[in-house]
Amino acid sequence: MASGAFAQTPPARPSTPQPPITVKEQVEVVATRVPESPHDVPASIEVIDGETLRAIGATNIREALALAAGVEVGPGGDAGPAGAVPEFWGLREFDAFLLVVDDVPWGGAFNPALTTLNLQDVERIEVLRGSAPVTYGATSFVGVIHVVHKAAAADRSYLSLRGGSFGSGGAAADVALSSSGAWKSRLSADVNRQGFKDDRTSFLRGHANYRGARVGADRKIWLTADLNWLTQGPASPHVREGAALSTATPLDQNYNPANAFLDDTRFSVASGFERPVLHNAKWSLTASYSHSGQRIMRGFLTDVSNTPNNATGFRENIDIHDIYVDSHLITADKSHVRLVVGGDFLFGNGEARGAVFTYTTPLVGSAPSVTEPGTLDRDAGSRRSFFGGYVSAEWTPAPPLHVSTGLRLNATVERHGEGASTTHARPAGSVGAIVDVWRKGPDHVKLFGDYRDTFKPAAFDFSLAENEGVLKPETAHSFEGGVKVRAAGGRFDLEASAFRMDFKNLVIATVLGGVPALQNAGSTRFQGFEIAADIRGTHSVMGRATYSFHDGRFVDFLQAFGDANTQLAGKRFEMSARNLFTAGAIVAPASGLVGDVVVKYVGDRFLNKRNTALAEPFATVDIGAGYRLHRFELRLDGRNLGDRRDAVSESELGDAQYYLLTARRFDVTFGLRF
Predict the structure, then answer these.
(1) What are phi and psi of 351, to 5 degrees?
(2) For residues 89 and 501, is the Cβ–Cβ distance under 8 A?
(3) pLDDT band of 464, cuts 50, 70, 90
(4) Which residues contact 15 (CB under 8 A, 6 or more apart)?
(5) CA–CA separation, 115 vs 100, rounded Å?
(6) How many Å is the Cα radius of gyration of the chain?
(7) Cβ neighbours, 10 Å, residue 549
(8) Is the model more confident about 25 or about 506?
């Protein structure tokens, strides 16, 4: 985890005595595009492998990152119950991180498409804390989540059936298809319904993913296609009145129209190749296209009273097209230097047409069906083109020292609606170093540090705010330093780091004329430290604990509240907990009893920018248990066993409204390997 530790331990054999632990290094490519061990990268990065995901029964990104250091994921959010809102380094924003799937930005030039992320047949998840200003440029800011599926040539097939609380259930299959000569292919397909305790809240997803590849000794060509069909019944966020959540609105009340929906059909296809070129260099090309068609009808309570027209609704049709192309050259290691030289192009074109309407809903009881507006008289559109040329170097001047540095030139062009195009050109870059201060066999102590400077065009959220002007781009620079330790013959890993990140023009949500919109904040600062430790014992027992201290504050930001402007300098950033703690244990032998326990603690955090509404700390407990044979596995997973319903993310659409932890639930899963 902190260094790919869980991923480095193969399942233990049931025989005794136990063989010595072999450190099986995982690799990551998100930081530099060059496969490297996380312990050799001068940045906070960890790898969570697919076996670990299956050992904890993870089916979504919150469960998958439950033990990741410094990361807290709020379930649901404005994107619907299938969505999530991750937090890195104390910043919880819907667009502040980059989601990558199999080397392609998932969501393109707009926002991460988390609702259509599927964790079926995943080989590993790479998590980079902090930006990736060289490799992904103008789309990564405070973190990168890279999901890598199993290779097309993987020959193991799986079938699973699941049933659970609130009418949940599903079936999935991962199948190695018949080979056609050197061409290998693999198909994953699943259908899944997830119910929730919240009234009229659920999602139904159908998904299929094809991967095909021909791999030779020094080259490969590949093709992937992904189809995701999603329909959601959205939940309502809970309204805050003054310093606390309102007591006038029941916990699981749904104020959406009875016929509300959040539907998304997304298709993506990608292809590429790798081949040798002159002087033993490797040339790679990746190209992808995706289309997302979204249909939305939802509403938010705007007046906490049983009065006419106490809610505002939104009806939208959104179409988004994305194109991504990356081409780069990786030179052979020469004179202890390896270069990556390339460029990429990211294009996004999105158009939303919709209407805003009012309706009446009772504070207690069933919300009525609402007649859809006959005319979609509002529009919001954005056309974005991001270009980047980059060069990075991995330099090892002497065996104890490794230096990683890179520079990128970003050029962005965007236009909202029929307005004029806005162009920005700005360099970005990073430099870091990691040095061995002690080594004995697999054990070592390494010190690392890095500096990163990055730039990102402001988010666009299709909020129907009548094509507001292009906001100022966000910029940030960060410093990070820490230590990576491996000890006890590879049985123990520890990573500790401290960071400071200074933001300018951070994009935050506001409300203009009753319609959600975005605005630039002034200056903000996020700083703190994070520590994670892993231990691996005999009989396939693994343990992990992490602690993070995050201090996010406004440095200079003037915002209007009512008729008065308020300077927020020194105030803590809202929804940012200062203290995060996780601890977990996993028992995952090749056969026999399996189980896991994960405990998470989230400290107090302010619900608002003026820091007048303080939310109390909370803790959650997840427990899973089952039995595994060579081909079969049966398991029971319980989530949020204490049934905590605390506020975990703020709505960007409803004013002073918050999404809560999902209620306690149980899932039974039967798996078959063949």
Answers:
(1) -135, 130
(2) yes
(3) low
(4) none
(5) 13
(6) 24
(7) 17
(8) 506
d(CA 145, CA 141): 11
The dihedral over CA atoms of 440, 441, 443, 448, expressed in degrees to the nearest 10, equals 80
d(CA 535, CA 542): 6
Token pair in block for residue 508: 């935050």
CA distances, 129 to each of 132, 473, 555, 644 (Å) = 9, 21, 22, 27
Does residue 209 sit in helix, strand or coil? strand
Q: What is the dihedral of CA 562, 565, 571, 575, to 10 degrees?
A: 40
Residue 219, pLDDT score: 92
333: helix, strand or coil: coil
In sequence order, which residues have a C-beta less than 8 Å from that of residue 4 and are 6 or more positions away? 25, 26, 28, 37, 38, 39, 46, 47, 48, 49
* pLDDT range class, residue 525, cuts 50, 70, 90: very high
Please name every residue paired with 563 in a beta bridge, in sequence order, or none if there are none. none
What length does the chain have?
674
Query: CB-hemisphere CA count at 13 Å for 501?
Result: 27
How do beta strands 261-276 and 244-245 pair?
unpaired
* Alpha carbon distance 590, 593 (integer Å): 9
pLDDT at 16: 47
The mean predicted confidence, pLDDT, of the chain is 90
Token pair for 492: 């123990």
Find all residues with CB under 8 Å of 371, minimum gap 6, and list them: none
Alpha-carbon distances, residue 215 vs 102, 209, 219, 223, 275 (angstroms)? 16, 19, 6, 12, 10
Candidates 141, 52, 151, 23; CA nearest to 503 is: 141
Backbone φ and ψ of 488, nearest 5° = 55, 45
For 35, 50, 135, 585, 647, the CA distances from 7, given in Å and listed in that order, are 15, 8, 24, 14, 32
State the DSSP H helix or E strand holding residue 54, giving kind and residue range, or none if neither. helix 50-55
Residue 371 confidence (pLDDT) above 60: yes
Q: Residue 413 contacts by C-beta under 8 Å, 6 or more apart in sequence?
A: 384, 385, 421, 422, 423
Regarding the domain delimited by 6-673, which CATH topology (the fold level of the hierarchy) does it fall under? Maltoporin; Chain A (2.40.170)
Q: How many CB atoms are located within 10 Å of the residue 619 CB?
A: 12
Asked if 503 contacts 453 with a C-beta cutoff of 8 angstroms, the reply is no
Q: In 584-623, which ranges are continuous DSSP H helix?
A: none
Distance of alpha carbon 465 from alpha carbon 467, whole angstroms: 6
Q: Are 428 and 435 in contact (CB under 8 A)?
A: no
Going by pLDDT thresholds of 50, 70 and 90, the confidence category of residue 486 is very high
Dist. CA 533–CA 540, nearest whole Å:
17
List, for residues 195-210, the tens digit of each pLDDT value: 999 999 999 999 999 9
Domain ranges of the chain: 6-673
Within 216-332, strands assigned E span 220-233, 238-241, 244-245, 261-276, 282-301, 311-330
Return the DSSP state at 234.
Answer: P
- Helix and strand tally (H, E) in the chain? 2, 40
Q: What is the predicted pLDDT for the residue at 11?
A: 44
pLDDT at 458: 78
- Say how far apart CA 394 and CA 391 lie, in whole Å: 10
Q: Tens digits of per-residue pLDDT, 574-611?
A: 999 999 999 999 999 999 999 999 999 999 999 999 99
3-state secondary structure of 12: coil
